[in-house]
Amino acid sequence: MTEQPRMNVESFNLDHRTVAAPYVRIADRKELPGGDVLTKFDVRFTQPNVAHLESETVHSLEHMMAEHMRNHSEDVLDVSPMGCRTGFYVLLVGDHTAESFAPVLEATLRDLIAADEVPAANEVQCGWGAHHTLEGAQAAAREFLDQRDAWGQVTAS
Ligand SMILES: [Zn+2]
Known about the structure:
By secondary structure, the chain is an alpha+beta fold. The protein has a single domain, classed as Gyrase A, domain 2. The protein is built from three helices and four strands, in the order E-E-H-E-E-H-H. The chain has helices at 55-69, 98-114, 134-146; strands at residues 23-31, 37-44, 76-81, 87-93. The mean pLDDT is 96. It binds zinc ion (ZN). Zinc ion is lined by residues 59, 63, 126-128. Zinc ion (ZN) binds at residues 59, 63, 126-128.
């Protein structure tokens, strides 16, 4: 497991044993033919292969971050859950750093904690409208926010 072939997906080249969640890091940065830049963040809530979020929690965090984050940034293109349920990818238009993105994420999570419903948690607007937990999403957001000072430290020690 030490010598992995180089893979296409950036996170497949990340040794998930070495990271220290929670953290926020740039997973990818792409310059488009016209010169515009896209920045993709790895927003990791739980320690890979040690802990994960419940499915309803991930789903509600996805809805809430996708909706609330757009109140804090015009640059949000996508907020998507990781299949391993340990975090999210956030894709932004423009050149961003983890430091410049952190206040946007923090404001988003504060809104989320203060919210009284999960947006679009119904059969018209979602593919599994019953699969949500406001309390679970808020608890996970609170725990992640409580460790705000650690977001910048991606790897252990
Ligand atoms: Zn949904």
